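Go through this chain for my students:
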Amino acid sequence: MYINKAEQVTKVIKNYFDGIYYGDIEKLRRSFGDDVHLYGDVKGDEYLKSLDEYLEGVKNRKSPSELNEKNQMEILSIEIIGNVAIAKLHVPMLGFNYYDFLSLSLVQGEWKIVNKLFTHVE
């Protein structure tokens, strides 16, 4: 059971990575649950956006793929207890060195990202 959950959570995270890397808004939208907010900081500036605001930003920028960046995104750890999970990710892209902490939950039978907390580390 745990291995199956870990595989499903990993699949959601890989879809999230692909969505970011290729600028695939629909893949990103499918990775997230409803009413998600993204919190963090970028170069010390606070960041708070709804999912729609975040996706609009992704849509209006060149993707790492378009800029011929090497995809170096990686899962650092995943912890699953029952129907919730926490994932720690390293997401270097577009000149930033991001670390993401994603909260995931089993929502109507599917794993979804329900919260994103991130920081840029220089």
Remarks:
- The mean pLDDT is 95.
